[in-house]
Amino acid sequence: MSKSVSVLFVCLGNICRSPTAEGVFRKVVEDAGLADRVTIDSCGTGDWHVGKAPDTRAQAAAAKRGVDISGLRARQFQASDLNEFDYVLVMDQQNLADVERIRAGNEGTRPELFLSYGQSRHTQVPDPYYGGDQGFETVLDLINDASDGLLAQLKERLA
Known about the structure:
Helix content is about 40%, strand content about 15%. It is of the alpha/beta class. It has one domain (about 5-159): 3-Layer(aba) Sandwich (Rossmann fold). Helix 1 crosses helix 5 and helix 2 packs across helix 5. The longest helix is centred in the last third of the chain and has 26 residues, at about 135-159. Keywords: Hydrolase, Protein phosphatase.
């Protein structure tokens, strides 16, 4: 039986950053021929957008780069996610604190900042929700970079 791995991306509302990361990383994994060995999902720490599609600006920016996230739907992070995913990758320090608070006293996957897998000088993926279109492009640049680093690590783990 071949090894498999699961990855969960977490942001605040699950309509901008984490669904973008899910879509981009899914494409990276598919292009690497590992889609059958890597499970990918995303969620938000808040419940405001549960069941909603990603922000239309996030969808448009991703589509320009050949990534379709239109079919994704927001869901809220659950404590059980810490036991179901091998990687819990958060977008910023507040997401990290929120997930750590839920994790407190429990076993399970320790959350990490997603950009720790990238080469960028940035440590957090900025929330583009209240900004202009360029913010979504910046998010995609950061996510693409970190996705490459994460894929390299997953290839080692799956070898």
